[in-house]
Amino acid sequence: MHNHAPPGYRCPFCRNLSTGQSDLPLEIVHRYEDVFVKVNPRWRPRNPGSVLIIPNGHFENVYDLPAELGTPIQQAVRDTALAMKPAFGCDGVSTRQHNEPAGDQDVWHYHVHVFPRFAGDELFRSQAELADAAEVKRAAILLRSRWPNADGG
Predict the structure, then answer these.
(1) Angle at Cα 29 formed by Cα 137 and Cα 95, nearest 5°?
(2) Sign (positive/negative) of CA torsion 129, 49, 16, 6?
(3) What φ, ψ does residue 64 adopt, rounded to 5°?
(4) What is the pLDDT of residues 21-80, one digit of tens each?
(5) Does residue 152 lie within any of the structural domains?
(6) Are 145 and 87 in contact (CB under 8 A)?
(7) What is the model's pLDDT at position 135?
(8) What is the CATH number of the domain that holds 90?
(9) In this structure, are residues 49 and 118 in contact, taking their beta carbons and an 8 Å threshold?
(10) Domain residue limits at 131
């Protein structure tokens, strides 16, 4: 009813998780039991280092997402935000999640975007671009180096 993946859809996020392969730079920052965090290989020029929080299981959108994944997803969002501040020296973070074509969803696997934000960056006025593989790797290294401990510190 709320699903839009075409027949035979090969989910890139499921492929990332099962094979560790990607057509684009793949830098997984952190893995949890139910979700993983990876640097988004497409980011906005004034907001480098954005990440995606992705459930390990395949759920197309928020309508399909089991309620029990809410807490693990939010924990990953929080940890990402805590790592972004010192890793990138950003002034804040923004999150975004899309559902269905009218909601700008373009990968048919639920995911949350977390963006580093800087004063005056006009994030939503810019277009995402494919990032250089070396820059994606650099962002992942910086985030990993600042990843919070299990106690949030």
Answers:
(1) 105
(2) negative
(3) -90, -15
(4) 777 778 999 999 999 999 999 999 999 999 999 999 999 999 999 999 999 999 999 999
(5) no
(6) yes
(7) 95
(8) 3.30.428.10
(9) no
(10) 12-145
Domain count, the chain: 1
DSSP assignment of the chain equals ----PPTT---HHHHHHHHS--SS---EEEE-SSEEEEE-SEE-TTSTT-EEEEESS---STTTS-GGGHHHHHHHHHHHHHHHHHHH--SEEEEE---TGGGT--SSS--EEEEEE-TT--GGGSPPEEPPHHHHHHHHHHHHHTPPPTT--
Flag whether 110 is in a domain. Answer: yes
Quick one: which of 139, 129, 132, 130 has its CA closest to 29?
139
Q: Would you say residue 59 lies in a domain?
A: yes
Instruction: Look at residue 41 and tell me if it is in a domain.
Output: yes
